[in-house]
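[Meeting: bench + compute handoff]

Bench side (C.D.) handed over the final construct sequence. Compute side (W.E.) agreed to return the predicted structure before the next meeting so the bench team could plan truncations. Sequence as handed over:
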Amino acid sequence: MSGAKVKEIEELIKIVSKLPGLGPKSAQRIVLKLINNREEIIKPLTKTLVEVYKNVVRCNICGNLKSSSSNCVCSNKKYDQICVVENLADMFVIQNTGIYNGSYHILGGTLPAFEGQKSGNGLLIDSLINRIEKNEIKEVILATSASIEGETTAHYISDSLKNKKVKITRLAKGVPVGGSIEHLDDGTLFSAFKNRSSMAKD
């Protein structure tokens, strides 16, 4: 006779298995670890998750995460460079290399390959333009992926900034075609940043 399944545990396994890189078996091991460490892990984890759910929001200016009770880092420091990325994971990867210490702008995705010239498609592009004007930015580094959508997004932003007095650069082509920033190794990313090229304005 097989052991009876516990509804709550099965539901938790389903939720955990939705996390990146985790399947049902890995999720099951994690859940069992949690169950066996109720006081040390589950209790503080539950409290922290509730706090994150209630208080952590996306900044509508730069796209970064911030506490709802405080100002975002983009309003607290002076900067003359902005690195534009598609998502938070890309920003974290670049930060971990230590090659760039300036400000970031997280778009929240990319533009569709065949619709990019029509509108910003809900991405934080207008706010990027506003930041450039307000902070007298000297360089905008476009660190979008080498996919068709990433290239479309980079060219749309470049076109949107063609009348602004700002240098626009793109990561070097060491980034493989179709590759995302999130999955690059440090060496490739370092080289791509160091050898970034200017996007000429027509």
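W.E. noted at the follow-up: The radius of gyration is 21 Å. C.D. will use this when planning the next construct.
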